[in-house]
Design the sequence.
């Protein structure tokens, strides 16, 4: 059997996940239901870290660190963040509206994507990086995966954790889905280890790295940049997984392209 470790992205905390074990079991069931029919025979485990990035903040207004990340994201889309006054909810809605115009998506879909993604990214880089990485590294060492499947912010965690574990694993495939790794300044230039001469390195111990991103995924930007700014990344032709919610991990896992890439791996 092919050993697979799944690493989730943002917005995976549930109140019922009273322990990391319960959170991981819930995720495993969801991922197996999505990918199992298309890729049978997998020994799938999941690394759960959502509780470590949970916010107790009650304010509906985005924090300054979140807005700073949104500003960098807006610039990737060619939007001047100073085009709207202030730096709060109205400013954020204006930026999302501008991106929606460029992508022909509904503004509410873009805004939902942004509000789900950037708060946890900000918490990861501010204080959560150490605890999250340690938990994910423990899962990697325990499961010794042939394949690591990492979605969204999980691709950032996986990249850093795999570098930390250089020489300790033999990963035949790193599969990133909807990855923001190439997002300049907000993510790419904050990675550990950071880029050298403008390029990131494929983690040691990873034989193959494949990246898949939906054509409408607002998180996986700039489009097509992952293979350009990281060594040894194989992109796949742009695909459409879910027009109404193009960052959904379950939609990614159900797509034939994902099953095909995993099925090509032999333990």
Sequence:
């Amino acid at each position: 059997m092919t050993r697979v470790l799944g690493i989730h992205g943002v917005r995976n905390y549930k109140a019922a996940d009273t322990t990391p074990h319960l959170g991981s079991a819930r995720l495993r069931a969801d991922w197996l239901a999505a990918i199992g029919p298309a890729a049978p025979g997998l020994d799938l485990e999941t690394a759960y870290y959502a509780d470590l990035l949970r916010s107790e903040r009650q304010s509906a207004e985005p924090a300054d660190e979140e807005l700073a990340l949104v500003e960098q994201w807006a610039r990737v889309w060619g939007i001047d963040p100073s085009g709207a006054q202030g730096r709060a909810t109205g400013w954020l809605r204006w930026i999302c509206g501008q991106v929606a115009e460029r992508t022909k998506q509904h503004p509410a879909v873009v805004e939902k994507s942004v509000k789900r993604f950037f708060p946890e990214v900000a918490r990861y880089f501010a204080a959560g990086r150490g605890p999250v990485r340690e938990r994910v590294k423990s899962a990697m060492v325990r499961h010794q995966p042939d394949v690591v499947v990492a979605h969204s912010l999980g691709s950032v965690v996986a990249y850093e954790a795999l570098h930390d574990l250089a020489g300790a694993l033999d990963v035949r495939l790193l599969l990133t889905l909807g990855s923001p790794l190439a997002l300049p300044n907000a993510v790419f230039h904050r990675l550990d280890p950071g880029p050298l001469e403008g390029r990131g390195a494929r983690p040691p111990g990873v034989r193959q790295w494949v990246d898949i991103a939906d054509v409408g995924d607002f998180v996986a930007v700039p489009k097509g940049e992952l293979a350009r700014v990281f060594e040894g990344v194989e992109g796949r032709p742009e695909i459409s997984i879910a027009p109404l919610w193009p960052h959904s991990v379950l939609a990614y896992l159900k797509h034939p392209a994902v099953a095909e890439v995993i099925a090509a791996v032999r333990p």
Summary: Residues 64-115 form one domain. The radius of gyration is 18 Å. Strands lie at 2-7, 42-47, 147-151, 173-177, 209-212, 233-235. The chain has two domains: 2-54+125-263, 64-115.
